[in-house]
Amino acid sequence: MREITFLEAQQEAINEEMGRDDTVFVLGENVQAMSTTGLWKDLSTKYGDMRVRDTAISEQAILGAAIGAAATGMRPIASLMFVDFLGICSDELINQLQMRYMFGGKIKMPLTIVAGCGAGRSIAAQHSKSLYGWLMTIQGLKIAVPSNAYDAKGLLKAAIREDNPVLYLTHKLSGGQSSQVPDEDYIIPLGQADVKREGSDVTIVSIAYGVTMALAAAEKLQANGISAEVIDLRSLAPLDKETIINSVQKTGRLVVTTEEPVTGSAAAEIAAIVAEEAFDYLDAPIKRVCAPDTPIPFSPGMEQFWIPDEDDLIKAVTEIM
Amino acid sequence: MREITFLEAQQEAINEEMGRDDTVFVLGENVQAMSTTGLWKDLSTKYGDMRVRDTAISEQAILGAAIGAAATGMRPIASLMFVDFLGICSDELINQLQMRYMFGGKIKMPLTIVAGCGAGRSIAAQHSKSLYGWLMTIQGLKIAVPSNAYDAKGLLKAAIREDNPVLYLTHKLSGGQSSQVPDEDYIIPLGQADVKREGSDVTIVSIAYGVTMALAAAEKLQANGISAEVIDLRSLAPLDKETIINSVQKTGRLVVTTEEPVTGSAAAEIAAIVAEEAFDYLDAPIKRVCAPDTPIPFSPGMEQFWIPDEDDLIKAVTEIM
Amino acid sequence: MAITKDKLVEILTIMLRIRTFEESVQKEFAAGTIPGIVHLYLGEEAIAAGACANLTKDDFIVSTHRGHGHLIAKGGKTDLMMAEVLGRKTGYCHGKGGSMHVADPDIGMLGANGIVGAGLPIATGAAASAQIRGTDQVAICFFGEGASNTSRFHESINMAAAWKLPVIYLIENNLWAVSTRSADVMGESQLSKRAIGYGIPGVDVDGNDAVAMYEAVAEAVARARKGDGPTLMVCTTYRWRGHMEGDPQFYKPKEEAEEWLKQDPLPRFRKYLTDTGTMTAEEIDAIQQGMVEEMEKALKFAKDSPFPSPEETLEDIFA
Amino acid sequence: MAITKDKLVEILTIMLRIRTFEESVQKEFAAGTIPGIVHLYLGEEAIAAGACANLTKDDFIVSTHRGHGHLIAKGGKTDLMMAEVLGRKTGYCHGKGGSMHVADPDIGMLGANGIVGAGLPIATGAAASAQIRGTDQVAICFFGEGASNTSRFHESINMAAAWKLPVIYLIENNLWAVSTRSADVMGESQLSKRAIGYGIPGVDVDGNDAVAMYEAVAEAVARARKGDGPTLMVCTTYRWRGHMEGDPQFYKPKEEAEEWLKQDPLPRFRKYLTDTGTMTAEEIDAIQQGMVEEMEKALKFAKDSPFPSPEETLEDIFA
Ligand SMILES: Cc1ncc(C[n+]2csc(CCOP(=O)(O)OP(=O)(O)O)c2C)c(N)n1
Ligand SMILES: Cc1ncc(C[n+]2csc(CCOP(=O)(O)OP(=O)(O)O)c2C)c(N)n1
Ligand SMILES: [Mg+2]
Ligand SMILES: [Mg+2]
């Protein structure tokens, strides 16, 4: 074990998987020299230009070629930079990734898409989205969003080894976070949520940087005598319903927070599942702590207003106690 | 009043609005000669090639140019054929339509996007989607989906006159439906649901061809002594929460049916709203009657299994009575 | 270039197989036994047949909504195809895909595709895969002149040109995209000129001439296998039928359609074969007759096959 | 073509305004007063200034993430821009947009844009709007050579060529797209050749020569206004700074950067103006001095302005 940052954990994951499996390769914009996320550090020197491929600004070709390569024996990692740019290659997401299904199970699609997400850096409407709810509607796509360095490495390795398409998102504010990470190889299976804090009065479901926020809120709630359980989803798809429902059975109360406009959010899906499958455990309305239904504004004061934060979460919890 | 079909109602709406306002124009693939939907019948003869513009197969240019035209004084109708094709121009949907907001309120965007949706014609995964939940996450977009000829005309005219972007969807199975339509000009305001059948035991929220299905199910439920209220949303955005909540207050039970994979569906959003804002009225779990989480299969038997139908709806209602 | 007799017979056989398959589908569709929609390749057979005669089983092709001919040319089995088109469990996709998604990855056929233009980056990726793995595989990407106006044309060809990928972008210019005459919605209708902007060869071919097709593609394939990168080929032909079966085609000038029917690639190739003494009329007729029988069997196989059970809807999503 | 003295002075003034504005932004960003990120137009001033000198207030331009220069060239006010870049309520977008979204539709500036390539169809649509309304308005669409590889380049130019729209697609080829040398990821780096594939003129211009820019765009604008359709212009220049402020630029060869600094468009234009006797050094210096004062005022205006209230987040979605 040693303490490393989120970004270092991710660099290790990719580096190790490229070393482990010759069919893993990276394609995307600016992956050879440097990139906005630093994920690709040193890879082209180590693995060469054939396996670390700079592309033009051509997101459809990037994701589409990754699909073609994945269908023919490779294990591509497609760098899409920001989740906001996925709109450009959404036909690949909604109509092409599903090749296996359309062909009656005839093909494997071992493909990892990596992108950043999240607000908080004042880069406005087109570079700050998370799109969790939008992405969850995509058939045949697994989605991982780690909240700490340990999970970041384990989920990324799992994604790369997965025989199905995985979208792996990193929240912009998570990159500097550090945690203890084992020296030896490990993965975190996709689709397993993690109870990051146990509690008995209310269940808070969160993801990505929202987990950090929820844990801080839980501390404050504790000071007010409210014991909050904090679940880190880690994967949006497959969604670990069981962990959520078990927790709600215990606490009787649910607050879901995801950083995105409330309408059509991942929080909506989770609320709907619980309202359908765990209704009898509920002692109070299900609260969603999300952003308002607007694009993300640039100016920091408005942006902070837009982002669901500790205060919003504490207020929501308090309202249903 | 006269009885006309859904398609005729739509043809009238476009024809009348083009006659009423010189800035209305149509662009898209095959709009001049004929189209898969027949929406554009006779328009190019009447209004000329300047206002009925055939494009190449270039969905980004179609929607992007419509945005540019809408921002500069025109009132475009962009024909996107099938909602499945919106993935291609999703950057326009999630990042460009929001021009007004990003510019601080400086521009109007009077733009109508028309497309078909829905399964039931055995045209497989890439031509049968509805994507309601996916589309509802888009900021600044209004969405109308009529279920009968009367609503079809009124909503389409409202969409064309609206100073904001509107996506107007037609379910493939709706086109032949007929209803009484007034001779005189009328619109149906966006964002107003319609109670298509009153009932007291359970609220069924539905949309598009699902309304036809829900009404048939309600008849059968009545025979079993269950009085179902059927709400036709008509617009997914703005969403008429009030009508839904008022109904749930009366019935105490909610079943939402939308034709799309259940995860991230419009039904999820509606369930979440009610679980948050009308929890105390609820006497039973909220049921969603949607499709399974898979692409749409081709072969008719599987396709019918995939489509949520009367039996599924009746079963869900019965389970919570 | 000297084409062997075997090659010529192979090309003819494929053309006849496509023609007969499509005629069967046409009849079945009219008879109402085929769910959904079908887009026929009638009149365009020389393209797929001539092109794919240059490939081995290991090479890749990527197809379109009008994909029956491509799959047959790559070695697809007509019984499994017919079963798929009829929505049967025994079909290539177990009834999940239908006409618009016929595929056989085992022979490198990466699928028909209902989204116009979507095949281009997929073919590009298959070619990148071959390049990284260091094989001599090539990919042929078939698409219509309509698809050449989609976004992916540009991004894919630029990527392949920059990376010198072993891929051939093969435009089937049948003049029409649904009811739109493609030349009317393009700035420049000589599509091969676009190659200049990517620094790759652009080649015009008579798509109704099987020999010309074979030879032009042979050159592009050789170039690709050598590592010299992609080629853009524009093969002119004509869409005999409506965009899909049932299309009344009000928009098509009758004389144009008639003129093109006279350019039928099959009699033309037949004449070439008999004129050059490569085959006799009887030999050709025998192959033709064999195809008729093959389609009867294929149809019987399909119709005797069960539909998938409804619950199979839930299978095949994840590996 | 004879350029009037007024025009030349106008171009110089705009270039100096852009230069001085960007230098102020550079300093402010380093000082930490600017939220988010900024992409500077330093070294590329001759392009926007020379191009927009051909437009009237009614014409349209569409910009990029590197948009300050374009807005200034179209007549934008530096105080409102500075306020926006600093996130103030008085800014062009009331703080909603910031550097990447500065816009002034009232003078036909349809916005900077954070999505590379997204401006192309928007400009195309503005040109279609002009064509349908029967005005003589034209649109200039500015974008980088990196953006020329995006999907929308192809779809937009093909549409404009087919419809003969009054639009100029103007590539600012500053050689780099973030840390990628664009020539390395393109099949053919002489971008003007792509025009051939759309049947429109493709023009290469020295983007650091203000007069050449003015003249080349004048011709394209005249063509557009006459109804003869779009032009593709490739204006070569260099991105002096990092992709955005704070970019350490490890990837850029030092000599290249130094070589290009010598091609600074401003001294070049200054020399032209003095050599031709159009302006004296003193006259030029006076304008320059005026700009320094304008930026001080703009900065003061911005800094004295309030931030929007958080609740304004909820405004401006629907008309
Ligand atoms: C992205 C997309 N846009 C539109 C359609 C509808 N569509 C199906 S086939 C077709 C025409 C294709 O023309 P072309 O590429 O020339 O192929 P052809 O049908 O002539 O073989 C169109 C517009 C589609 N399937 N996908
Ligand atoms: C669609 C999209 N892909 C990637 C990015 C990230 N990005 C921002 S600017 C840029 C480079 C643009 O290069 P170019 O068009 O040459 O403009 P320049 O920055 O050189 O002015 C990239 C890749 C983006 N904003 N949008
Ligand atoms: Mg065609
Ligand atoms: Mg550049």
Largest interface: A-B, 54 and 54 residues
* Rg of chain A, alpha carbons: 19 Å
Q: Tell me the β content of chain A.
A: 15-25%
SS elements, strand count of chain A: 14
H and E string of chain A = EHEHEHEHHEHEHEEEEHEEHEHEHH
Q: Give a short account of the largest sheet of chain C.
A: 5 strands, parallel
Number of helices in the DSSP assignment of chain C: 10
Based on CA atoms alone, the radius of gyration of chain C comes out at 19 Å
Shape of chain C: globular
Oligomer: heterotetramer
**Average pLDDT over all residues of chain A:** 97
Q: Give the low-pLDDT segments of chain A.
A: none
Structural class of chain C, by secondary structure, is: alpha/beta
Head-to-tail CA distance between termini of chain A:
40 Å
General form of chain A: globular
Read across the widest sheet of chain A, the strand sequence of neighbours is 3-2-4-5-7-6-12
Indicate the percent of residues in helices of chain A.
Answer: 25-40%
Head-to-tail CA distance between termini of chain C: 45 Å
Biggest sheet strand order of chain C reads 1-2-3-7-6
Overall number of strands of chain C? 7
Order of helices and strands of chain C: HHEHHHEHEEEEHEHHH
